[in-house]
Amino acid sequence: MTRPAGPARSVGMGSLCVLVASVLWGTTGTAATFAPAVGPLAIGAAAMGLGGLLQALVAAPRIARETSGLRAQRGVVVLGALSVGAYPLAFYSSMHLAGVAAGTVVSIGSAPLASAVIERVVDKRSLTRRWMTGAALGLSGTVLLCLAEAAGAESGSGAHSARTVVLGVGLGLVAGFTYALYSWAAHRLISRGVTSGAAMGTVFGLGGLLLLPVLLATGAPLLDSWSNAAVGAYMALVPMFIGYVLFGWGLAHVPASTATTLSLLEPAVAAVLAVLVVGERLPLLGWSGIALVVGCLAVLTTPSRTAAKARANTGAREDSQAQPHRAPAVDTATVVAASEPGEA
Predict the structure, then answer these.
(1) Is 344 inside a domain boundary?
(2) Is this prediction's pTM over 0.70?
């Protein structure tokens, strides 16, 4: 007997969407190295700006239908759009100064903590032991990756000086905070009745408009060669457009703090590609960090006993229609809480 997808399965699909998006995002730093003449501001503005405008264009009918709901949450929309506009400038500058691996690690690795603080302060959401364990593993892994990159720079084996690595790390923290902010804003819109397409299209479309002046001022090198143009097109269409469509679907089923923690897969992918494609060196310390990130993902995505038991109870109820006295229904919040950072 085929049963409809329940809350636990929806959370699983949401997590999968975020993980696939993270893999796509992990390719951006390596892709940018194929256009060395294009500056980080131009790369960021082209990727996020054009990708955001494309999202808005595709979602235009939904945005038109849900204008009243978006207008009611205009403060959240503006906050999300400003964060979208700031994020790529800080993120790609961080990678340019600190290296692909370190810039991605700091930017994405700091986002879960920032997201948890935002949810705790604004939404009064408590944090479960499961989330804290996963976040501790993931953040520890990102710290090890960052230390490995900085050590390479200090010893002269890396392509970046220690001073530029420090500046890149600072910009990475800015990127992580703005990433957490627009993730929270999109999740807030979705949780208040706006569809994921309309929420992501509006926030990223407005953010794309904010990035257009930066693109016009810095983007001329993108047109200097077919390879530069191809890099810009790839960044806008694949990681930014497709990736954020998947991320929006994920945010419809998991909290922003869970989504940003799952996206810790991105720096691991970026680090591996930086070694295999770009030629950056990653010592044993860095590979240990990647192992911890994988452990974080395992903790957060493995179905918990609570969720499995709830699904079993739900199935038992559906298969016992003839019973005169049925067991009381399981609260679906218990199922969702098994994968959310809020206390059950």
Answers:
(1) no
(2) yes
- Determine the Cα–Cα distance for residues 114 and 314; give it in Å rounded to an integer: 36
Is 244 domain-assigned?
yes
Kindly state whether residue 88 falls inside one of the protein's structural domains: yes
Residue 163 and residue 150: Cα distance in Å, rounded? 10
Q: Show the domain range for 79.
A: 39-310+329-337
Q: List per-residue pLDDT tens for the chain, 344 residues long.
A: 444 445 566 777 888 898 999 899 888 878 888 888 889 899 999 999 999 999 999 999 999 999 999 999 999 999 999 999 999 999 889 888 877 767 777 787 778 778 878 888 887 777 778 778 877 887 787 778 777 766 665 555 555 566 787 788 889 889 989 989 998 999 899 889 899 889 999 999 999 999 999 999 999 999 888 999 999 999 999 998 999 889 888 888 888 778 877 887 887 788 788 778 877 776 788 778 778 877 776 776 666 555 555 444 544 444 454 444 444 443 333 333 333 444 33
What are the structure tokens assigned to 79, written together? Answer: 């906050």
